Amino acid sequence: MDLLSLPALTVLSDNVTIVEKDGVKIVRVIHEKATAGIALHGGHVVSFKPQGQEELIWMSDKAAFDGKAALRGGIPICWPWFGRIAAPAHGFARSSEWELVEHRENDNGVIISLGLAPNENTLSIWPHQFEARLNVEITDTLKVTLDVTNTDDHAWTFSGALHTYLNLGDVRESSTVGMGSEYIDSLQANKVCEGGSELVLTDTIDRVYTKPEALIQVNDLKLQRSITVENQGHNSAVLWNPWAEGATAMGDMSDDGYLGFLCVESTINAETIEDGKTLQPSESHQLVTTISAK
Q1: Residues paired with 48 in a beta bridge
Q2: Residues 174, 168: Cα–Cα separation, whole Å
Q3: Are 25 and 19 spatial neighbours (Cβ–Cβ below 8 Å)?
Q4: Residues forming the active site
Q5: Which of 109, 184, 197, 263 would disulfide-bridge 139, Cβ 3.0–4.6 Å?
Q6: What digits encode the pLDDT tens for the residues 124-141?
Q7: pTM of the full predicted structure?
């Protein structure tokens, strides 16, 4: 998306301004290392473009910036659960309004911190006290950290994902390595499968890779670059693309939108909320994804 053309509503520093798209406020970063955008609706990274490179984050040209629906593309925050194990699907974080807590910058880049606290809506969905902080570090690379803390007087359990849409020249002309061989296939009723060491897509994919390597690499032949994804605090990596049939069924994606991305997600996967990760009072957990290209 073209962040640079949006007029500034508020100037916070030489590198950080607040802009607005269709009613959704976006923290815009313009630094000599990279440009980026983080929507307050959903705490949602919508852009990251290193200096001299193509955009690394894919956004749908039909994404609904209405302040209600989760944005299609970018890096949705799936929390306090991932998937359809409860309602709403993927939790409430990706459709909640986050608050700008802090911004820091130096010659190396910019750090944006957003916060989400319990409110009437979250408590009606998930009756627990928490503190969520999203730290977005923008340099030559993009590092996104979801830091959640149990501020309640009892333990609670969660799952989640940083649902990154990587921008590709053409997904059909890409290959992926480092995701591991074992995966749970959502298209085969969660059957556990074994795959090869390299993935070349020819159709829909919706897989939870259970033993990913430290680095997952997506080779983009059309844009002549390799995108590296390094995840931490996860138990799996989800790879997803809806392909033509799936894209056609989505109102917020163009029919050919699937060609432009592959989702590579840092994920805490669980079959039920109760099977997720448990935090005791005052305990925290960080789910991280770091993305770079060369």
Answers
A1: 36
A2: 8
A3: yes
A4: 163, 265
A5: 109
A6: 999 999 999 999 999 999
A7: 0.97
